[in-house]
Amino acid sequence: LNDLTVPEGANVTIAITANTPVAATLAWDEQPHAVMNGGDDAHYVAEITATASDAFAIILADSYGHIANSERTYNFEVVEDFAPLIEPITPENDAKFTSEDDVTFSCKVTDDYAVDEIILFYAISGRPWEHVQLYKGDPKTWETIQTTVFGLSIPDLDDVYEGDVISYYYAASDNAPNRSTAATEVRFIEIRPEPQEPEKAPPGEGPPP
Hints:
The chain has 209 residues and is mainly β. 0% of the residues lie in helices and 52% in strands. Strands 1, 2, 3, 4, 5, 6, 7 and 8 form an 8-stranded mixed beta sheet that branches. Strands 10, 12, 13, 15, 16 and 17 form a 6-stranded mixed beta sheet that branches.
């Protein structure tokens, strides 16, 4: 067992194993002592919600009145849960595409707790915002870093024309008990004209003398 640093609101499990059945207690410096739940296998567990920093020792007492204290006190530091950090990857801000292009949206999200959800919001030339869920975490596989990629086909969008501007941003939430959400600044894509092929001169005509 080592000192612990955990985000505010985290649920922490402290588990120990004794060599004989005992009464096990977490002796906090500031908070009331907590009884560790155990069974006949001498395995003891305490479930804690991180609300404030403190320190604790472990006290074991057997049925004969013998008492043993842990060799040291363990620090339990509760730190602020920060909102996710979102790093847009593609497309570049103020990118230019034609109405026949496909656009790849990608971003990297990092969180001190775990990433739960990533959403892409977009709007076309001032129309109502629409959104696409790019990632949804699973409690069994939550990770602190997620990279997500989404392909948007401009031809599949309704009524997108030369001169339109697509506004978009990413939002992400963590899975902390007090859910934190962050969003990027709004970025823009300009729909430009299709490139025009140069006109070919009629056969037999050449440049003027």
